[in-house]
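Q: I'm building a small set of examples for a reading group on sequence design. Run inverse folding on the following structure and report the sequence directly after it, with nothing in between.
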């Protein structure tokens, strides 16, 4: 846990909350939960006794949230607390060969242990100080939180950054489980978004190698490449392409890049990075209402706009190499290294350690070992009124099936994978495609070639037939599975 969090004084949060109006009399006042983690043992015990009256397991999440901000017991005493003889490792030390002295218990650690013992007594579970096991147990329960849980979260994260308190206003609605909302380790916009960044023609992008990964987007005939080596340091880009204001969001943790139109509900919204996660997927916020939005679905999930029915329009994007994108789009523009920030923008520098293993940085509920955690899948969501399950297709499977037909929500789709591994999805209707040819076009069952464009498939016959592109994007398997546990998987 970050030193920033461990340095928090939990008691400092208490005055910020005040009394909850309209709270059912049977529910303990939310301030009691902060007091339960107090360093003062008497104050903590009185709070825990009050919480125990009428206890229900839905309260456990708040106590675990607090315990996660308190340090666990150390294994060894700090060197500064050992006898001042040069230390027990000196051969001539009178303490040589003796066991290490026990670590003096930090008062905050004692507070954490009290909370854990209380949880064991109230729930009958015996997970000890393993907070990950406590969270898995909590997530397996029906979601029945304290009615003031959102306000509690606001105070908790508001101690890290006061702006986070704005994401959880009084009476805030939530369309997701608040006990699965995590702090991501940064303050609001601590990972700084790029705001209409500088671009250049492809011929001037000498810093890019053909093998570098880019996210390619074309709107109204205007093509642009967003190099991963830049976007990974910023995770959100506000831009204008083809006359459309867009918000491109990259969740590095779950491997997802999605371009949205910034205009929804008649308002062009300005988005930022909240510093919070839901099931390891970043939550963005709009500056107009401070509502939190799912970056996977483009929907507001917490705050004033939650439940409004607003959904950001999505645009098709392709993950490919710079060499392939540039060859297919000679007039493309591309971001420059002149971002206004000092970062190591070399290929693979951002999140190098995270991408090099299959380990996760944040806990999620439910794992599925049919694929590795960070194996890439191409994902598609059914329409809002559809009863179909979401669909994930392993990228490795598509590499060996460069033309693949499938169905979703009653629609016939064809997925075309380029020689370089880029995936594009089109509405195929009744047309069957049988092979890809060397110039990148594909051929249908009647032998007619079709050109593969960013917005559509176009037949070479006269008059040409046109099949529209369907938005789809890639994700790490664990991230998609965490958001859509009912997903269908093709591998």
């Amino acid at each position: 846990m970050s030193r920033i969090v461990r340095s928090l004084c939990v008691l400092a949060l208490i005055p910020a909350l005040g009394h909850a109006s309209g709270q059912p009399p049977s529910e303990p006042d939310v301030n009691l939960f902060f007091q339960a983690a107090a360093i003062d043992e008497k104050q903590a015990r009185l709070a825990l006794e009050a919480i125990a009256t009428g206890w229900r397991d839905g309260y456990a999440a708040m106590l675990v949230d607090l315990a996660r901000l308190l340090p666990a017991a150390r294994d060894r005493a700090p060197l500064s607390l050992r006898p001042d003889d040069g230390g027990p490792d000196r051969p001539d030390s009178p303490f040589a060969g003796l066991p290490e002295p026990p670590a003096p218990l930090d008062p905050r650690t004692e507070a954490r242990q009290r909370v854990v013992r209380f949880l064991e007594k109230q729930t009958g579970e015996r997970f000890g100080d393993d907070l990950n096991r406590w969270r898995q147990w909590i997530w397996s329960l029906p979601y029945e939180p304290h009615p003031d849980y959102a306000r509690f979260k606001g105070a908790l994260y508001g101690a890290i950054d006061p702006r986070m308190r704005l994401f959880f206003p009084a009476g805030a609605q939530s369309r997701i489980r608040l006990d699965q909302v995590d702090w991501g380790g940064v303050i609001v916009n601590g990972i700084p978004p790029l705001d209409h960044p500088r671009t250049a023609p492809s011929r001037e992008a000498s810093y890019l190698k053909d093998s570098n990964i880019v996210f390619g987007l074309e709107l109204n005939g205007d093509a642009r490449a967003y190099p991963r080596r830049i976007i990974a340091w910023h995770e959100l880009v506000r831009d204008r392409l083809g006359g459309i204001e867009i918000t491109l969001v990259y969740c590095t943790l779950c491997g997802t890049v999605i371009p949205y139109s910034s205009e929804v509900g008649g308002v062009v919204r300005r988005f930022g990075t909240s510093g919070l996660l839901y099931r390891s997927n970043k939550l963005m916020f709009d500056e107009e209402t401070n509502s939190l939005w799912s970056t996977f679905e483009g929907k507001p999930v917490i705050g004033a706009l939650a439940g409004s029915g607003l959904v950001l329009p999505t645009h098709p994007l392709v993950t490919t190499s710079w060499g392939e994108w540039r060859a297919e789009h000679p007039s493309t523009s591309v971001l420059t290294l002149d971002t206004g920030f000092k970062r190591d923008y070399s290929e693979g520098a951002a999140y190098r350690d995270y991408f090099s293993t299959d380990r996760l940085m944040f806990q999620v509920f439910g794992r599925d070992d049919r694929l590795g955690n960070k194996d890439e899948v191409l994902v598609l969501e059914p329409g809002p009124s559809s009863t179909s399950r979401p669909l994930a297709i392993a990228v490795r499977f598509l590499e060996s099936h460069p033309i693949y037909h499938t169905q979703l929500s009653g629609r016939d789709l064809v997925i075309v994978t380029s020689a370089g591994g880029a995936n594009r999805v089109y509405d195929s209707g009744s047309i069957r495609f049988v092979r890809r040819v060397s110039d990148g076009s594909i051929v249908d069952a009647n032998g007619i070639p079709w050109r593969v464009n960013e917005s559509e498939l176009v037949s070479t016959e006269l008059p040409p037939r046109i099949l529209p592109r369907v938005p789809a994007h890639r994700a790490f398997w664990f991230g998609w599975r965490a958001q859509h546990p009912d997903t269908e998987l093709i591998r």
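Residues 107-123 form the longest helix (17 residues).
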